[in-house]
Amino acid sequence: NWGCGGAGGVATMIPLPTGAAxxxxxxxxxxxxxxxxxxxATDRHDPDPDLRQHYRDILAGTDVGWAIGCSDLxxxxxxGQGVVFQARLxxxxxxxxxxxxxxxxxxxxxxxxxxxxDMARVAxxxxxxxxxxxxxxxxxxxxxxxxxxxVMRMEWVDGLDLRQVLSQHTLDRTRARLSPxxxxxxxxxxLTEGPKQPRLKPGVAIHVLRDCLSALAAMHxxxxxxxxxxxxxxxxxxxxxxxxxxxxSAADLRSAEGRCAWSPLYAAPEVLEGAPVSPQSxxxxxxxxxxxxxxxxxxxxGATGVSALLEAKHALEHRVPELLPPEVAGSxxxxxxxxxxxxxxxxxxxxxxxxxxxxRKGAAAFHRQLVKGDLASEYxxxxxxxxxxxxxxG
Length: 394
Prior knowledge:
The chain is α+β, with helices and mostly antiparallel strands. It is built from 15 helices and 16 strands. It has helices at 32-35, 49-60, 112-132, 162-165, 168-177, 180-189, 202-221, 269-272, 279-295, 306-323, 326-329, 332-342, 353-358, 363-372, 379-390; strands at residues 12-15, 21-24, 38-39, 70-79, 82-90, 96-104, 140-146, 149-155, 159-161, 191-192, 199-200, 224-225, 234-237, 242-244, 251-252, 261-262. The longest helix is centred in the first third of the chain and has 21 residues, at 112-132. It is globular. The relative contact order is 0.13.
């Protein structure tokens, strides 16, 4: 289940004139700051009602011409930028392939020209992401326009987003569906109880982190910053690997132009203060996700409003040991890795994603430490077997 802003929730079915159905799920986290989106130049006037109506017709199912070649559309994602459908792409001789279709909303834009200009930026970044072809990064297939509404076609990722994984529902389902021996193994190695939400065990958390850092390194080498890393934009595939998804907020590092769109809870402090996104701001976002994976709670619980968030982000590197469970806080290497990723000042973070993964005291060093202590596991296979036994969720 993949969509912009995560997956989960109870779906309701909306009948379409064609006899198909849309499956609508509320996709964003219930956290106030995570669902909040900051946009530049989003005065909500309506100088072009036709464009907005075209978009609404797509959502209502009264315009079915936009998804040519696709069938069995299900609306699975909703966020500040638009909506995401799962669809079946039909080929010749019975060939069919699941794909994701992201429809970009014109509603946050002041004018149709502003929408068109920003879509040109998104299309340019999407083309460069498509050329990366990295196994840990969402694959982009196409970018089209239908009645001036822009649509991006991407691979469909079969798995769970990290927000789903870190939910009590997933832990309860694990305990209900797995055999006693497998359940004990999963809680020892993969996912266990946390103070506010389930947490990942250190080896698995670093496995997820390393896959994400590998994707980020590939993006950064191409001059692109993701710009909106958070648990709902990180997918655990049923193969056991991790994919970074939702590039709608990705930024061209060679240009200062374009709309600013990000989730405050996971944005670096300098971004909250008005600086553009950068490779270092991506690392800070990834650090916040890592701390949450390990701690079983948000590192910013209780911080309401931008001022409180900024204060909490500036203090986080000093609070890391008290947030982590004792088994994690006892690892000097792991605490150091967390602190360097979430450092308030960008220059104190790792110089790039590759260094955060493979450099001295990076993520790979922790995995090597586990191997030397005979504490490592085959994390990719462990995740694959667990997700297979867990079955469909959401």
